[in-house]
Amino acid sequence: MVEYGWLDTALFIHLLFQNDRLRPRCREIVHQLETDEATGWFDVLVIHELTYSLPRTKLPQFATRQGIADYIRGFVELDSVQAESKDELLEGLELWAQGRVSFTDARLAVLARQRGMVLCSPNEKDFEAELNTFPG
Predict the structure, then answer these.
(1) How far apart are CA 26 and CA 13, in angstroms?
(2) Which of 65, 74, 78, 88 is nearest to 16 (CA)?
């Protein structure tokens, strides 16, 4: 089994373009992940970067947050792809896809809720009142 380690954002961008010279190798790596011939790690920063990089491709499947979330989820959910707190990553991605908050705010809200913690943000509209310690 091949171990690719941390998977970079560029891997998932080059994969999208037929004429990209790096596409064949990116496709090979993703195929190995999809068929459990390889493993790799997905970091929250890669998800964050994809949430704003994918719309810049101007591809129609990334015209909505849900389309972007579906693409990212397809990789994160693979058994061969590891992530720290995968369930929290996916929940944050889904909250972001609903369109109410930024990915970072979605991530913080999920972490606070899942871990029984609170957070502190002046952006009161972005967080449930009981999670936010900022209001005085």
Answers:
(1) 9
(2) 74
User: Residue written as tokens 């459990």?
Assistant: 36
Q: Which residues, in sequence order, are CB contacts of 114 under 8 Å at separation 6+? A: 85, 87, 88, 91
Over the stretch 26-84, which tens digit does the pLDDT of each residue have? 999 999 999 999 999 999 999 999 999 999 999 999 999 999 999 999 999 999 999 99
Cβ atoms 110, 103 nearer than 8 A: no
Could you tell me where the DSSP H helices lie in 35-136?
Answer: 44-53, 65-76, 86-97, 103-114
Tens of pLDDT, residues 42-53:
999 999 999 999
Compute the distance between CA of residue 79 and CA of residue 19 in angstroms, rounded to an integer. Answer: 29
CA separation for the pair 15, 12 (Å, rounded): 5
